[in-house]
Automatic annotation (TrEMBL):
This is tRNA (N6-isopentenyl adenosine(37)-C2)-methylthiotransferase MiaB. Its EC number is 2.8.4.3. The keyword Transferase applies. It comes from the Bacteria. It is an enzyme of class 2 (transferase). Keywords: Transferase.
């Protein structure tokens, strides 16, 4: 979501005449799009802002802006105004379209300008400079009503709001016309899409509509909450040929007691049943997840339940996080916080287990011919191309750069835990 917001900010800045630079010393405008989901990301912002002080002294006309969800709750914007007075503009996730006027206000007054009022509406999407010429994000909803007890997002991004299907389809049709092959539908909880619309429609029906758009070859979506993942969605995924056989389904923790404390509203058994249904109806499906280690009160037995789920589901990918205490959330008030060194050890055990499973899953791809959307040259070797399979696996193979943006078939000949190698067919 943040990356997608950055694409919109980039568009606005280019319209105003700015061009991108790789060198911070050359910049006339520096902007940080922040995230406050975990403390580390927040601390990094303060560190970076601090290190800009000498540069701002040298170049007083340079504008420094900070935006994103860190500005929308808690004390960050006050701290920045008090301790980082060289910051010129502060705004939130729903003020992106106001950026030109915020810049003008700053230039005409010389003051620090702050705007975090809810202004941008989900149906009025801002144009963007997309990072990719053939893979695009499409926002379908904002906000979250779930209030998982560890999570600050509902406080920062506000309540759920769905974009109309007409507006979504307009954007997808436009992307198809521009040659886009793959789209990822974005929302904090896409499975509850449509509930706030005057003519409610379900997420599976939205998928069915988008599946008909000619030119789009692959559809993905992020993020699904297990409590809202319906049988109809599994049917839609199975029946829509463009919807990739891949799902990101965060389970967060394996222990039912911890899941309850997290307010996740499903049990381990509910989750495993969902996985079983998904694997039955969509035989080649690959699964990824988010897991939190060290939630307040997590015991060794609770953690073993997390490992058990990982072993049973056999994920292909996963994001693992050490619990980070976020002021303002319910979990931050719990007085049984887990010691950092215990969380750290559990985290390492979890990673070991997951990387082993990723390795074994990738081994199963050996000898198969997989469809790959070629994204570009590999970072380390210019002669090697990289792309992703429908199952979101990264593949490296030798090929000509003219293949970038095309769908090709690659026979898999090698692998590690995180990627596959192969030969172009
Ligand atoms: N601490 C650690 N991880 C968190 N996440 C959300 N809040 C926290 C927190 N306080 C993780 C969840 C979520 C992902 C986007 O970030 O796993 O799915
Ligand atoms: Fe946070 Fe839970 Fe909402 Fe995801 S569903 S954004 S983890 S509150």
């Amino acid at each position: 979501m943040n990356e997608h917001d950055s694409e919109k900010i980039a568009y606005i800045l280019e319209k105003l005449g700015y061009v991108k630079t790789d060198k911070i010393e050359n910049a006339d405008f520096i902007i940080y799009n922040t995230c406050l989901v975990r403390e580390n990301a927040e601390l990094k912002v303060y560190g970076q802002l601090g290190s800009l002080k000498p540069l701002k002294k040298e170049k007083p006309d340079m504008i420094i802006a900070v935006c994103g969800c860190m500005m929308q709750t808690g004390e960050a914007k006050e701290i920045i105004q008090e301790k980082y007075k060289h910051v010129d503009i502060i705004f939130g996730t729903k003020n992106i379209s106001s950026l030109p006027s915020l810049i003008n206000r700053h230039l005409s007054t010389g003051n620090t300008v702050v705007d975090i009022e809810d202004r941008d509406l989900i149906d009025n999407q801002i144009d963007m400079i997309r990072e990719h010429p053939f893979i695009g994000y499409v926002n379908i909803m904002t906000g979250c009503n779930n209030f998982c007890t560890y999570c600050i997002v509902p406080y920062a991004r506000g309540r759920e709001d769905s974009r109309s299907p007409e507006s979504i389809l307009d954007e997808v049709n436009d992307l198809a016309k521009k040659g886009y092959k793959e789209i990822t539908l974005l929302g904090q909880n896409v499975n509850s899409y449509g509930k706030t619309l005057s003519n409610p429609i379900s997420f599976p029906d939205l998928l069915r509509m988008i599946n008909k758009v000619e030119g789009i070859e692959r559809i993905r979506f992020l993020t699904s909450h297990p409590k809202d993942l319906s049988d109809d969605l599994i049917d839609a995924m199975a029946e829509c040929d463009k919807v990739c056989e891949n799902l990101h389904l965060p389970f967060q923790a394996g222990s039912n007691r911890i899941l309850k404390e997290m307010n996740r509203k499903y049990t381990q058994e509910d989750y495993l049943l969902l996985v079983k249904k998904l694997k039955n109806k969509i035989p080649n499906i690959t699964l990824s997840t988010d897991i939190i280690v060290g939630f307040p009160g997590e015991t060794e037995e609770d953690f073993e339940e997390t490992l058990k789920v990982v072993r049973e589901v056999e994920y292909d990918q996963g994001f693992t996080f050490i619990y980070s205490k976020r002021e303002g959330t319910k979990a931050a008030t719990m007085n049984n916080q887990v010691e950092r060194n215990i969380s750290q050890k559990r985290f390492e055990r979890l990673l070991d287990l997951m990387y082993g499973i990723f390795y074994k899953n990738n081994e199963k791809e050996l000898g198969k011919t997989l469809e790959v959307l070629v994204e570009g040259p590999s970072k380390n070797n210019d002669e090697v191309l990289t792309g992703r399979t429908r199952g979101y696996k990264l593949v490296h193979f030798k090929g000509d750069k003219s293949l970038i943006g095309k769908l090709v078939n690659v026979k898999i000949t090698g692998h590690n835990s995180f990627s596959l190698n192969g030969d172009l067919i």
